[in-house]
Design goal:
Structural class: alpha+beta
Protein name: Acyl-CoA dehydrogenase family protein
Radius of gyration: 25 Å
Strand order of the largest sheet: 1-4-5-8
Largest sheet: 4 strands, mixed
Organism: Streptomyces milbemycinicus
Number of strands: 10
Keywords: FAD, Flavoprotein, Oxidoreductase
Cofactor: FAD
Strand content: 5-15%
EC number: 1.-.-.-
Distance between the termini: 52 Å
Length: 599
């Protein structure tokens, strides 16, 4: 394959998940499971310890939650630190960290204050610090490098009021008559760090050579024609600076536009910036998800230690053990997905497939852990931390994490929509092109399966065998769907089926990674890793069976007819009896739209 089959396929560089799409369980790619190099791990340990102390001295998370704002002094100190350029070269004042160590630092900061962690994550994922590393030599790179070295805070302005799911961007960049620049017009919302951003990366539609394409345009937010619109307040992550911009014929020099090579596969944002965004979700979503899950484990342990029901310690009840065991296993799996997604490139693999699905896997696993923790804490009341503190109960901020975790399932794309896109843009591209597994790696995969099987407990050996069988079934079902719907339009209209297909493949990947990681941990004398793998895979295989059933369904209830009648007002009106459905105007008397002074 010399031409990419889809937007994340890299000819000559495969991935474990991509091989599952093609119908093969290439265990030789994941076993032995990679470990962070010792020298890199030690560097990460030291930086994580420093980051924890830095975050603790920077903000009071309870106060940030109450006021809904990060202190100006905190932003100032961030600008003066190296935390906004974790992976930038040292000549720019960066720390030149590996992907995994950058992830660990963001996780550590997020565990103390998620809004603070997200400010750091934005700059290290979709900010100009990482963009500089992929820019060609020239005036734009020189300008951005100089700004990054001075502590630049930037915002990535992509999403528009009409929604992020649209392929086209209504914001346009029109060439000026003199040919020296562009006039940019449009509206952007949900831009992280927008209230105090010093530069904007604006995704705009450009017409060139009779073709419409997306370009990343560097805009000065203080330029004539730019206006910061209202700051956004989320249901969770209180204090995370976020907002929008309107642009009215903003003049931008031609050399402030990042011109990429044309891509064979059109994407929502530019191809190379899109690659940064894929890795960026590891920092923006996966790292905070893991931080929240680990906090919930610690809170759960403290809770069951101090509680008794009828004189019996809470931890002695079977269902409590089940809840905590499942959360431990899910956190183990979350770590496995994160480690693999950030280390597999070192083995010459393409990490983009795994990084794409890690967003959903990690945020959903985190949500499960938080939800179970909420059930455990029901005995202490459905309370805020302040209310608990007022009556002498440990003021665990579970409510905050509950809202924050739910936000992570939406950020970076709604979970079900990302699953649909995965099937539409990637999985079936292999079936359409007829490039399924032809057994090239069969011998290596078989040998790896034998080695992995020997390293597993009997229960985990059975799980591995079931995963192998499920991949065979997955391949057959995808082939049947491709044959049943020979044109893309009718195939892609089967949205519920395609979502089930994507989740099926993703679960196979996650369970396989968990088994491989458990085998490595066992070799490192971790006597409990296999128990966690057993718990996780037992649940994963149940989910796989359900997704397989959904993907095989030929008939379903007619939700389309029911929904159309409801939307048009022709049916089911009685379902709204006895309620007051009016929405009152929200209180807009809060802070103004101007950002804080962080000079």
């Amino acid at each position: 394959m010399s031409r990419p089959l889809n937007a994340i396929n890299v000819p000559g560089r495969t991935s474990f998940l991509e091989e599952i799409f093609r119908g093969a369980l290439r265990l030789d790619l994941v076993h032995p499971f990679p470990a962070q190099p010792e020298s890199d791990r030690k560097q990460g340990d030291a930086l994580v310890a420093e980051a924890k102390e830095f975050a603790r001295g920077l903000v009071d998370p309870a106060l940030v939650e109450k006021t809904g704002e990060l202190p100006r002094e905190a932003i100032k100190r961030l600008r003066e630190s190296s935390y906004l350029k974790l992976q930038s070269p040292r000549k720019l004042g960066g720390l030149a960290l590996s992907d995994l160590n950058a992830f660990r630092v963001i996780q550590a900061i997020s565990s103390w204050s998620l809004p603070l962690g997200l400010v750091v994550a934005v700059q290290n994922s979709i900010g100009f610090a990482p963009l500089v590393q992929i820019l060609p030599e020239g005036p734009l790179r020189d300008m951005l490098s100089e700004r990054v070295a001075r502590g630049l805070i930037s915002a990535f302005a992509d999403t528009e009021p009409s929604g992020a799911a649209n392929l086209r961007r209504e914001t346009v960049a029109v060439p000026t008559e003199d040919g020296h620049g562009y006039l940019v017009s449009g509206e952007k919302v949900f831009s992280g760090n927008a209230p105090f951003a010093e530069l904007l990366g604006v995704v705009a539609t450009v017409q060139e050579d009779g073709r419409e394409m997306r370009r990343l345009v560097v805009v000065d937010p203080d330029a004539p024609g730019v206006r910061r619109s209202a700051e956004h307040e989320f249901m969770g992550i209180k204090g995370f600076p976020n907002g929008g911009f309107t642009l009215d014929r903003v003049r931008v020099p031609r050399d402030h536009v990042f011109v990429e090579k044309p891509s064979a596969h059109d994407v929502r944002i530019t191809a190379q910036a899109g690659g940064l965004a894929i890795l960026g979700r590891m920092y923006l979503i996966a790292a905070p998800s893991l931080a929240i899950a680990k906090l919930c484990l610690e809170w759960s342990r403290g809770f069951v230690r101090r509680r008794r029901v009828d004189g019996v310690p809470l931890a002695e009840y079977e269902e409590i053990q089940h809840l905590i065991g499942q959360s431990l296993a899910d956190t183990f799996a979350l770590e496995a997905v994160a480690e693999w997604s950030l280390l597999c490139e070192d083995a010459g693999l393409n990490p983009l497939f795994e990084q794409v699905v890690a967003k959903n896997l990690c945020s959903l696993l985190c949500w499960g852990v938080v939800d179970r923790t909420m059930s455990l804490f029901a005995a202490e009341g459905y309370e805020t931390a302040a209310s608990k503190a007022a009556r002498g109960a440990p003021p665990v901020p579970l409510e905050r994490s509950f809202r924050d975790a739910r936000n992570l399932r939406i950020s970076g794309g709604v979970d079900f929509q990302l699953d649909y896109w995965l099937s539409k843009l990637a999985i079936f591209s292999y079936h359409r092109a007829g490039v399924l597994d032809e057994g090239q790696g069969a011998e290596q995969a078989a040998e790896a399966r034998e080695r992995l099987t020997v390293a597993l407990t009997p229960r985990n050996q059975r799980h591995l065998a079931e995963l192998h069988d499920s991949v065979e079934e997955f391949r057959a079902r995808c082939a049947a769907l491709a044959k049943a719907y020979p044109d893309d339009e009718t195939l892609f209209a089967q949205e519920h089926t395609l979502i089930a297909v994507a989740r099926w493949a993703t679960e196979i990947m996650a369970a396989s990674l968990v088994l491989a990681r458990a085998a490595r941990r066992t070799a490192e004398h971790d006597t409990e890793a296999q128990d966690l793998a057993d718990i996780y895979c037992t649940g994963a295989l149940r989910r796989i069976a359900e997704y397989a059933r959904e993907a095989l369904e030929e008939e379903r209830p007619d939700t389309g007819r029911v929904t159309r009648r409801w939307i048009t007002g022709d049916g089911h009106g009685g379902l709204l009896d006895d309620i007051v459905a009016d929405v009152t105007d929200p209180d807009t008397s809060g802070p103004g739209t101007s950002g804080p002074d962080v000079s």
